[in-house]
Specification:
Number of strands of chain A: 16
Number of helices of chain B: 5
Shape of chain A: globular
Number of strands of chain B: 5
Order of helices and strands of chain B: HHEEEEEHHH
Number of helices of chain A: 0
Shape of chain B: elongated
CATH topology of the largest domain in chain A: Jelly Rolls
Largest sheet of chain A: 4 strands, antiparallel
Radius of gyration of chain A: 18 Å
Strand content of chain B: 5-15%
Largest sheet of chain B: 3 strands, antiparallel
Strand content of chain A: over 45%
Helix content of chain A: under 10%
Oligomer: heterodimer
Largest interface: A-B, 44 and 41 residues
Strand order of the largest sheet of chain A: 1-8-3-6
Distance between the termini of chain B: 87 Å
Order of helices and strands of chain A: EEEEEEEEEEEEEEEE
CATH class of the largest domain in chain A: Mainly Beta
Helix content of chain B: 25-40%
Number of domains of chain A: 2
Structural class of chain B: alpha+beta
């Protein structure tokens, strides 16, 4: 059984909210329905826009969200590169589930998104209707850029975001970069400090897995609050780029 | 160089340095060097970024564009299709339609230019225009008048 590769580039209108960018292209519409048990991977890049304006995407398969509202990298060559632009790479789709890649453009300019979704079959000899074993749990991802004002501390950049708390126990990894020197980060789970204040990479682009990993293997209990605190000790605002990957322990 | 030549050279240098005030006055009278500033010329647009563009890379300029300074100037992509009118694309108003823009990533040249030239030919930094409103006010008229553009037709057609 062969993998399915969905790749497309789309222009997203000013202020547009696109429910599923895959089906804008009629040729790709049949592929939005997952045909076999598979492991999925999403890569995506945007043509412009940073720091809270530009394109934001989220991915769901069936009713399961694996990528919460996230910013993308702006590459010199407008094409997603593996592994540089992998947004979500460990999620497991079931036959009949609908893939929905939602895109929002909150800028005053038309921007392009280029994405690639790979669906890799889990069984070589599977045919429609055949039973299949329980699939592994998904890894939930969110990735953002935001400005940290001078001489301040953002008490929790995850505050109010969908994956601030997980419905089942999970293993957390955090990847971070900043646009300039002067930021430190620390991680709390509930009241427990897991990672003390540490400097982060100054590569001035979205974090890349695994190069920009700063915290890994944190056990997060069900519904525990994850607090990612970032401090700026300089006299100018600095933009931080962060990504969290939460590997669920049980399939929802 | 013999001793005589060496003495003459020293005398000439002393004569020049003794008259540096005069040299300054002549330069000032001619207006040479006055109001000049260092700027970075974007090789995509021919327009200028301020002289601290490289020093402030990642703080005021080029946020999210990597470690190597390049031009953050936006470029219109006339080869991509226009977003179509319709609910599937989230387009309910023809004014939402335009050609997509992207960061040019062009190279930069270091130049000494007149300050007034920087004011009249300066680029709008992305940090001062996060939602691209100011820049799109410049770009949309260019897209409408470009001979490769179908934008006026598409917007008119969408209006029905």
């Amino acid at each position: 059984m062969d993998s399915i590769i969905i790749e497309d580039v789309q222009s997203i209108a000013i202020g547009a909210f696109v429910d599923n960018v895959i089906v804008i292209n009629n040729a790709l519409r049949p592929l939005a329905k997952i045909p076999f048990p598979c492991r999925g991977k999403l890569l995506a890049v945007a043509s412009g826009g940073t720091v809270g304006s530009g394109l934001r995407i989220e991915l769901t398969h069936g009713q399961k969200k694996v990528l919460a509202s996230s910013d993308m990298r702006i590459p010199t060559v407008f094409s997603p590169e593996d592994p540089l632009d992998v947004m979500a790479d460990e999620w497991y789709g079931e036959p009949g589930e609908m893939l929905a890649l939602r895109v929002v453009n909150n800028s005053a300019g038309v921007l392009s998104i280029r994405y690639r979704i790979l669906l890799e079959p889990l069984y070589d000899d599977w045919v429609s209707g055949m039973p299949y074993g329980p699939l592994p749990p998904d890894t939930l991802v969110q990735q953002r850029s935001q400005s940290i004002a001078s001489n301040t501390s953002d008490v929790n950049v995850l505050d109010g975001l969908e994956f601030e708390q997980m419905p089942v126990p999970s293993l957390l990894r955090v990847l971070m970069t900043s646009a300039a020197i002067g930021l430190t980060r620390q991680l709390y789970i509930e009241q427990q400090r897991i990672a003390p204040p540490s400097a982060i990479s100054i590569l001035n682009r979205m974090p890349i897995d695994p190069f920009d990993e700063t915290i890994r293997g944190v056990e997060v209990a069900e519904n525990d609050q994850q607090i990612l605190q970032i401090s700026n000790s300089t006299v100018g605002a600095i933009v931080v780029f962060w990504k969290t990957k939460s590997k669920l322990m049980f399939r929802q | 160089m013999n001793e005589l030549e060496e003495a003459k050279l020293l005398a000439d240098v002393k004569s020049i340095t003794d008259h540096m005030k005069m040299v300054d006055q002549v330069f000032k009278a001619k207006g040479l060097g006055r109001n000049l500033t260092v700027a970075f010329r974007c090789n995509h647009s021919g327009l200028y970024f301020p002289g601290d563009y490289l020093r402030e890379w990642g703080r005021k300029f080029g946020i999210g564009l990597g470690g190597v300074p390049v031009s953050e100037c936006l470029d219109t992509d006339y080869y991509s299709s226009l977003p179509e009118f319709g609910s599937l694309n989230g387009v309910s108003n023809p004014d939402q339609i335009a050609y997509p823009v992207r960061v040019s990533f062009a190279s930069l040249d270091h130049e000494l230019i007149d300050e007034s030239h920087l004011i009249t030919n300066g680029l709008i930094p992305a940090i001062e225009d996060l939602r691209m409103e100011k820049r799109m006010k410049i770009i949309i008229p260019k897209q409408l008048s470009n001979i490769r553009s179908n934008l006026a037709f598409a917007r008119g057609k969408s209006r029905g």
